[in-house]
């Protein structure tokens, strides 16, 4: 149900040796939200994505909630990285392999892979080598692979940072469409225009701490703490 809690963190943190990458994070990701994580380099955005996904061990409490409309199944998650990790196989075989790893029955894999390629507009290149596709196509293939898993939550770590403007637009419009389909999105980005276009809620991180957590329109209009305001004005490094 829209608005129900999917993941909660309470007093959560992550240390890498002596580096305190995240500290004292208490928040909830709710169904249907599109959350943007912003902040300077090293502020902890990627670590927060990884902690929410469960890819990194932290301290404090992390809870993945049972969904109301699925007999108590916990939310399914997928992650998209800045540079997609694709194997030296055809685009279609990359999808088939992911479906096999996800234990999708063999009889369904072909159809699911074809649907996923079509969903991202790559139906014409299924037999081409994945790594020979353009950067934008590779990212769309990674999105198809995530979509094929039918995740409730998609985490995206700077998904358009290494793309040219036209590929960026294509990937952005797919992210937007996934959100419109009801997928909950949590995305780190250095692109404030993208935040305006895609997000409903913004978390601003500073030195591993979530300093601002606001609906997107308030983030761009409310008075913010000093460093966050400087960041918005482009006076802090964020490229
Ligand atoms: N595997 C790791 N081992 C040691 N330190 C790490 C590791 N991953 C991240 N860090 C440190 O944790 C802090 C937060 O890093 P993180 O990558 O989460 O920041 P970020 O906001 O995503 O940065 P960027 O915008 O540059 O991607 C940084 O000081 C970083 O150097």
From TrEMBL:
InterPro entries: AAA+_ATPase, ABC_transporter-like_ATP-bd, ABC_transporter-like_CS, MetN_ABC_transporter-like, P-loop_NTPase. The keyword Transport applies. This is ABC transporter-related protein. Belongs to the ABC transporter superfamily. Keywords: ATP-binding, Cell membrane, Membrane, Nucleotide-binding, Transport. PANTHER family: AMINO ACID IMPORT ATP-BINDING PROTEIN, GLUTAMATE_ASPARTATE IMPORT ATP-BINDING PROTEIN GLTL. Its main location: membrane. GO terms for cellular component: plasma membrane. GO terms for molecular function: ATP binding; ATP hydrolysis activity. PROSITE patterns: ABC_TRANSPORTER_1 (PS00211), ABC_TRANSPORTER_2 (PS50893). Residues 7-232 form the ABC transporter domain. It is found in: Cell membrane. It comes from the Bacteria. It comes from Leptothrix cholodnii (strain ATCC 51168 / LMG 8142 / SP-6). It is a peripheral membrane protein.
């Amino acid at each position: 149900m829209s608005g129900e809690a999917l993941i909660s963190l309470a007093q959560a943190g992550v240390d890498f040796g002596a580096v305190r990458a995240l500290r004292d994070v208490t928040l909830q990701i709710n169904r249907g939200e599109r959350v943007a994580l912003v902040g300077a380099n090293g502020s902890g955005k990627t670590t927060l994505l990884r902690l929410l996904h469960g890819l990194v061990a932290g301290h404090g409490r992390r809870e993945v909630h049972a969904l109301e409309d699925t007999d108590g199944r916990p939310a399914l998650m997928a992650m998209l990285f800045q540079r997609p990790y694709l194997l030296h196989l055809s685009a279609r075989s990359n999808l088939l392999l992911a479906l096999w790893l996800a234990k999708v029955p063999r009889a369904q894999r072909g159809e699911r892979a074809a649907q996923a390629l079509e969903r991202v507009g790559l139906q014409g290149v299924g037999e081409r080598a994945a790594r020979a596709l353009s950067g934008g196509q590779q990212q769309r293939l990674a999105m198809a692979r995530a979509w094929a898993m039918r995740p409730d939550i998609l985490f995206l770590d700077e998904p358009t940072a290494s793309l040219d403007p036209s590929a960026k637009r294509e990937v952005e419009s797919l992210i937007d469409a996934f959100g419109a389909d009801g997928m909950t999105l949590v995305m780190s980005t250095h692109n404030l225009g993208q935040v305006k276009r895609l997000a409903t809620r913004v978390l601003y991180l500073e030195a591993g701490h979530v300093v601002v957590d606001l609906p997107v329109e308030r983030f761009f209009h409310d008075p913010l703490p000093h460093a966050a305001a400087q960041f918005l004005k482009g006076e802090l490094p964020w490229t």
